[in-house]
Amino acid sequence: MDNILSIKESLVERVKQRRKERNLSQQTLADRSLVSFGSVKRFERSGEISLSALLRIALLLGCENDFTGLFQENFALSDAPQSSPPPAADLVFKRFSVFQDEKVRKIWHDNEWWFCLSDIVETLINSKRQKHYLLDIRRRDHSLARLWPDLTKLLPLDTPRGKHELLCINTLGFFRLVQSMPNKQVESWRLWLAETAYERLCFIEDPLRAVQLAKDLYKAKGYSDRWIAQKLSGAMLREELTASEKEKADKDYLLFMAELSKNIQPIWQ
C-alpha cells in the first residue's frame, strides 16, 4: 500500500465487520458518527465514502488503532509534523482511482497545482475530442463560459515535442467544471462535493465539530495526543495574538486620526 486509497480500502472491510459485531443499524451509525444517512447507505452498498466520514465511523466503532497503524506503516509518520507535506490538491486527485493509473500532467504555479485540462477530460470520460467537448460544455453553461478566463491558464507542460503551453485548470476550477459535466463518469465527484458541502454546513451549525474532526484527522495520521494538543493550542494562541494586535492597531489608528483632526481643524478655520 502506497497511498491513502490503499489505506481506505483496507479499513472499509474492518469497519463493516465491526458494525456487524456491534449490531448497529445504519441510522444509528449515521446519528452517532455525524455522517449523513445517505453516505452510510452508500458505504454499506458499495464501500464509497469520503475519508473524513470513514474516519468518524471508525472512531465511533473503536477502529482508531487501525487508522494509526496503517498511516504510520505507509507514511512512516513520527511524533513531529512533516516538514514538506504534499499539497492538498494532490491528495484530492488521488482520492479517486481513475487518477491512479492515468497520467494527468500538472504544474506548480502561483502556490497551487494546475492540471492539464485535456488530460482530465480524456481520463474522466475517455474522450479524444477534448477541445470540442469543453467547447460544448461552455455553450450549454453560460455561467461557466463567463468564468472560464478566470478558471483556466495557459501553462508550459511536457509534450512529446518538448515544452508547450497547454490549457490548465486549478482545483477550484476543476470542481466548478465537474458541476457542468453531464457524464455519469463524474457522478462520484458530484456526490463527494455534495457530501463535503453537507459537512461544511454541519461545521457552521456546530463549529466544535470542526475542532473534533481536526483532532481525529491528526490522530489518524499518527500524531500523539500531546502533539495534537500543542498544535491546536498554538493555533488558538496565534489567533488570540492576531486579534489582540488588530484591536491595538485599530485603537492606535483612531487615536492618530483624532490627533490629526485636532491639528488640522485650526488650519481649516
UniProtKB/TrEMBL annotation:
A Pfam family of this chain: HTH_3
Domain named HTH cro/C1-type: residues: 15-67
SMART domains cross-referenced by the UniProt entry: Bro-N (SM01040), HTH_XRE (SM00530)
Gene3D superfamilies the UniProt entry points to: lambda repressor-like DNA-binding domains (1.10.260.40)
PROSITE patterns reported in the protein's UniProt record: HTH_CROC1 (PS50943)
GO MF annotation: an example: DNA binding
Domain of life per record: Bacteria
Protein name: Phage antirepressor
